[in-house]
Amino acid sequence: MALSNDNRIGRHAILLLLSEDSVGQLKKLEQSNWKGCTGKVGSMEAHKVVAAIETAAKKNGIIQSNVYRESHALYHAIIEALHGVTRGQVQLGSVLRTVGLSFAILRGNPYDSELEGDWIAVSLYGTIGAPVKGSEHETIGLGINHI
């Protein structure tokens, strides 16, 4: 049940997110039967961030929308990543904060044994701050959940 060094899903999700060549990075990961995508979202409302990431995951075939456990696993990975971005308080507009984020979603099996099944990782990177241009700073978050 050891984690494979080459398949650390969180590491790959962050590298995909920060890569200058995300298309090339995705092609390499897909050769290992992993699925992924990248995107961007900006909002003062956390539910809009969640919705954008869920929509991207469904559109890109990373999760099946008619399988509850897949949507549920993705939701928990998103919320965990948002905890990192918001420093533990998943609040944005209600406390006058806004985010501008890039995201990466990655699905695959990070273990040596195929019996462990798929996991999903969501990585977020961008800015957070008051809704005034120039009043933001960098932020990053990572969430990982089993499917």
Automatic annotation (TrEMBL):
Keyword Signal in record: no
InterPro entries noted in UniProt: Regulatory_HutP, Regulatory_HutP_bacillales, Regulatory_HutP_sf
GO BP terms, alphabetized: L-histidine metabolic process; positive regulation of gene expression
SUPFAM superfamilies given in the database record: Hut operon positive regulatory protein HutP
Family annotation (Pfam families): HutP
Top-level taxon: Bacteria
GO molecular function terms noted in the UniProt entry: mRNA binding
UniProt KW keywords: Activator, Histidine metabolism, RNA-binding, Transcription, Transcription regulation
Transferase listed as a keyword: no
Membrane-spanning intervals of the chain: none
UniProt similarity note: Belongs to the HutP family.
Function text: Antiterminator that binds to cis-acting regulatory sequences on the mRNA in the presence of histidine, thereby suppressing transcription termination and activating the hut operon for histidine utilization.
Quaternary structure, from the entry: Homohexamer.
Protein name: Hut operon positive regulatory protein
Originating organism: Halalkalibacter okhensis
Recorded name of the encoding gene: hutP
